[in-house]
């Protein structure tokens, strides 16, 4: 397959409808197959369907979030609706189910056997065992749900809010930020909810009223439209879950994950909450002491954390910014992942959806293995968070993978002065790069169903695992150089960064668990009459003394409610595994032998084995909770 260029709506539709038509043709080929059912007449055509659908989901999923032309984004959304309709129908295709069931499974090689098992389970989850009338209801429900979800995502993507402030309200902001925010003709400075504006402002602006105002506009993005859409989403999911024999959507969504049930998710949240309670309480006391009064608001948290870090550890995040200029960081991340995982990156000229997108050919151990593209800066109508997408999925003998990072980092071409990043943004960059590496090194799997780990709640483990590197002096000294003097980042500054990072981990985990509980509670009960804002505020009060501003409704812009649905706990679940895997790097994080073992045992197999087994292969034992608990325990 050729690399997709700057797609026009008509070309996008044509190419992807051709994939869907080919999937359709393979499905009818299976329908016409006569027993004996074999790898040749059933499983191979079934895999062709999987490859076609992966191609459509990849290109259209990406274009819907990044293409500057609203017509292309809309066309991509339309194709995804068609894809979803086909996928539901596929899941309910009786001849396919019987053909898969008629295969001589023990005679297949182990990965093919796993593909058959997963495919049959997928079909049960799509309603293959239901009566025709209920199957029809599942199909209709799915189709309606996709449209609502797309509308929900679109509203988040397209709603950027801002506050107009007096220049004095930038007090506390670093000089590069002030330079990048000149006053307009009316003497007002505009600060938006886009991350390069929002994140530093919440960390450093001394004016509490201004931070609160920005928090409120950010917490009312996509309100009220997405409140109504969320209610529709929850109702449709509950109806689907019940049709498919589950008590609620959370149970349905968890069934094929590592946790397996809503009860297990609840138990995990409680266990992790207990592990972070003491640290979070100690940190809260420090925040109150710093502010001198209660309540502490969500608009205060990051600011006060930074202040306490400055006071207790003489840590000032602003001091790090000059060491993280965007261009230097971009190169450094390529170099670092190259060294760790045996990758090399060669810039290539490709006309993609936007001129700022940079593309590299990737080799693994000297072998050409695909491409990556970096779409790294904010623009109108673009995805607002940070994530890794796929443009072309890789399959053995078919196509090399092309992965895409979509972020919202400061743009060196769109501002005065150097584009300096927060350390946390560099961490995000390497985190997302971890997903990219995963997609590249697992790009030679044959079977579409196991291209990626089968368990969604595992997918953040490999990327959260990599975040640790960006806190390591031996790693940082390689690339963190002062933008003006070229001086290497001082070891003392990195030590302060590490101490300061540890301060705040309880608060961070507690907040992540609160979000996990919100996502779960929206999906583990009958949604009729559920007030989603009340669920959010109740959880907020239950998990922490830090208050959310009245009048906000963060669930309206909680994008994970679309893709992850009830499964936001994935991040903390994966972090438990990531913390445990770090134990294997006893010779420092630049232990290349361990890094290659990790690449080959955890990343490259994709979903060809259950996630727990991949981790066990690497660790030599099952993963456990202890490393996470130890990390969270209060220290001396
Ligand atoms: Zn991630």
What's the SSE blueprint?
Blueprint lengths: L8 H24 L6 H28 L3 H22 L2 H8 L8 H16 L6 H27 L3 E4 L9 H5 L9 E4 L2 H10 L3 H11 L6 H19 L5 H6 L7 H30 L6 H16 L3 H4 L5 H16 L1 E6 L9 E7 L2 E9 L11 E6 L9 E5 L16 H19 L19 H7 L5 H7 L11 H12 L2 H17 L10 H12 L16 H4 L6 H13 L9 H12 L7 H9 L6 H7 L4
Parallel strand pairs: 5-7
Antiparallel strand pairs: 1-2, 3-4, 4-5, 6-7
The protein binds zinc ion.
CATH class of one domain: Mainly Alpha
Number of strands: 7
CATH fold category name of one domain: Neurolysin, domain 3
Total helix count? 26
Structure description:
The protein is of the alpha+beta class. Among the domains are: 9-91 and 93-129, Endopeptidase. Chain P, domain 1 (Glutathione S-transferase Yfyf (Class Pi), Chain A, domain 2), CATH 1.20.1050.40; 160-218, no CATH class; 323-503 and 571-632, Orthogonal Bundle (Neurolysin, domain 3), CATH 1.10.1370.40. It has 26 helices and 7 strands. A 5-stranded mixed beta sheet has the order 3-4-5-7-6. The chain has a two-stranded antiparallel sheet with strand order 1-2. A hairpin with a 2-residue loop joins strand 4 and strand 5 (367-375). Helix 1 runs antiparallel to helix 2 and helix 12 (262-291) crosses helix 13 (298-313). The model has no long low-confidence stretch (mean pLDDT 95). The site of zinc ion has 4 residues, from helix 16.
